[in-house]
Amino acid sequence: MSPIRLIILVVAAIAAIGAAFLVRGMSSAPVQQVQMEPQVIEREVEVSSTKVLVARSSMRTGALLTPDDFRWADWPERALNPAYFIQDASPDAIEELSGSVVKTPLLEGEPIVDQKIVKKGETGFMAALLAPGMRAIAVEISPESASAGFILPDDRVDVILTYDVEVMSDRGMSDTTLTKTVIRNARVLAIDQMFGEMDGVPTLTGSTATLELEPRQAELLAHSSRLGSIALSLRSVADADENQGVPVANTSLLDGDSGAGGSGVRVFKNGNVSGGS
């Protein structure tokens, strides 16, 4: 073999060995991982807003609105509704709407609209609160006969009648007092509340309660108020759905049944005979 070929073979062998060592070193070298932290770009976006009249707290149907029940709140202009009361357009809205009655329950922070309230002086607000087929009838109450002022609009009550009867028995005529629940689960539509005192303590009281009843039940309430004294018993919220929320009444008094459980009964009110058999 010629010297030139020998030299070429030696150089090629050395290059091959060097390449092998280079590849081995690269494969065994630790791989460095570079972690890229996400870049957060903060930008302040200015949203145009205006002042809208909203409810300061949740309010039930029949609640009487006072200036403390309203507040002006920032509202995005793109979400404005033409029915809202805007401070720039109606700066006196709080004073004008005070004294209105809530027709549909309001949630805290909900914008006030005309469809949710009945303004003072408007007619027909009570009729708007009545369910179809129902009637509104008022009955006189006192703190003693209405749970000391704790009964409020949209509460549920039982109507209790207490009256005197004269019963004929084997021993002759005798006087007795009967108490019975004549209407159950009646909805209170309104109470003419006013501030007064009971045993020297300031109390929110009322003299008249308006109930939502069926026509026959309204007749029963009117009849019962003539027979004796009426008391309202406040029901638990958990019992409001009893009988699917429909009031139940014992209308036997309208048919001349005094409830004394016998014949020869005369019902007295203020010393005068007012009914019986």
What does this structure look like?
This protein has helices at residues 3-28, 93-97, 125-129, 215-227, and strands at residues 49-55, 70-76, 101-102, 117-118, 135-140, 156-169, 172-198, 201-213, 229-234, 248-249, 265-269, 272-276. Strand 11 (265-269) and strand 12 form a beta hairpin. With 277 residues, the protein is of the alpha+beta class. The N and C termini lie far apart (150 Å). The protein has two domains: 51-128, Type Iii Antifreeze Protein Isoform Hplc 12 (Alpha-Beta Complex), CATH 3.90.1210; 133-249, no CATH class. Helices cover 18% and strands 35% of the residues. It is elongated, with a radius of gyration of 41 Å. The strands form three sheets. Strands 5, 6, 7, 8, 9, 10, 11 and 12 form an eight-stranded antiparallel sheet that branches. The protein has a two-stranded antiparallel sheet with strand order 1-2. The protein is built from four helices and twelve strands. It comes from Henriciella algicola. This is Flp pilus assembly protein CpaB.
Which descriptors would you attach to this protein?
alpha+beta; Type Iii Antifreeze Protein Isoform Hplc 12; 2 domains; 18% helix; Pilus_assmbl_Flp-typ_CpaB; SAF
Strand content: 25-35%
Distance between the terminal alpha carbons, to the nearest Å?
150 Å
The run of helices and strands is: HEEHEEHEEEEHEEEE
Number of domains: 2
Radius of gyration: 41 Å
Strand count: 12
Summing up helix and strand content along with how strands pair, one would put the structural category as: alpha+beta
Please give the largest β-sheet.
8 strands, antiparallel
Mean of pLDDT = 79
As a percent range, the share of helical residues equals: 10-25%
Count of runs of 4 or more consecutive helical residues: 4
Q: Catalogue the unreliable spans.
A: none
- General shape: elongated
Domain SAF: 50-118
InterPro entries: Pilus_assmbl_Flp-typ_CpaB, RcpC_dom, SAF
Protein name: Flp pilus assembly protein CpaB
